[in-house]
Amino acid sequence: MNHILASSMLRDQLKEQCGLWTSLSALQHIYLCKDASVSTIIDSKIFASLDKRGGVWNDRFLLTELVQSAFGETNYVDISRLIVRSARKTFHDFESQSRKVKILKSISIEYMLPWPVANIITKPAMSKYQRISTFLMQIRRAKYTLERQRLLKKNDTDDDDEDEDDNLGYIIRHNLLWFTNILYGHITDMVIATNTETMEKALAESPDIDSMVS
Predict the structure, then answer these.
(1) Burial of 123 (0-12, 13-18, 19+ CB in 10 A)
(2) Tally of structural domains, the chain
(3) Which residue of 88, 126, 166, 211 pairs with 162 in a disulfide if CB–CB is 3.0 to 4.6 A?
(4) pLDDT of 87-134, one tens digit each?
(5) 42 Cβ contact partners less than 8 Å away, ≥ 6 residues apart
(6) What is the pTM of this model?
(7) Structural domain boundaries, residue 58
């Protein structure tokens, strides 16, 4: 009985004083792209650097500064808890992977949760947040590349010079762009939003800490 009472009191402390809901909102903004305007700022810098073959794209100090600045106006995010880690790439690896979305796995954003909250949102859960964030960024990278190819083609080629191959290429890019938009919208608006709502409801209704962790 005492264990149940103590667990219930600790649950209330987590929700009311330790910032559980604030931390969950922060994770939604950082990893689940709740505010697209912020992810656009970050993406544009990283993607442009990749296209220019620049070394800035995975400089962890510059990326940390970029991410902290991008989230600076987000109420739920404590930017002092934000850091970016990156895996160094050899020139050969970078040249062979720079056009592939999997290179973005080299970058990871870490948000250091308050200790009481970290006992509820565990490391395995944070790893899942990171994988989702990387996957969403990879889709946005694909979309960014498709849009740039279309714009470059439009700027480099006169209408009179377009041939059958150009038209076919345009159709393929158009369809791929349509697919990436549909895929991204489905994941963010249906899968992520629905599961986030379900998780928050389950946490709110949890009678004790053990049920919250499980």
Answers:
(1) exposed
(2) 1
(3) 166
(4) 877 766 777 777 789 899 999 999 999 988 998 899 999 999 999 999
(5) 66, 67, 70
(6) 0.85
(7) 2-213
108 contacts: CB under 8 Å, gap ≥ 6: 84, 85, 86, 130, 134
Q: What is the pLDDT of residues 160-184, one digit of tens each?
A: 555 666 788 888 899 999 999 999 9
3-state SS of the chain is: CHHHHHHHHHHHHHHHCCCHHHHHHHHHHHHCCCCHHHHHHHHHHHHHHHHCCCHHHHCHHHHHHHHHHHCCCCCCCCHHHEEEEECCCCHHHHHHHCCCHHHHHHEEEEECCCHHHHCCCCHHHHHHHHHHHHHHHHHHHHHHHHHHHHHHHHHHCCHHHCCHHHHHHHHHHHHHHHHHHHHHHHHHHHHHHHHHHHHHHHHHHCCCHHHHHC
Whole-angstrom Cα distance, residue 43 to residue 74? 17
- Please state, for a pLDDT cut of 70, what percent of the chain lies above it: 80
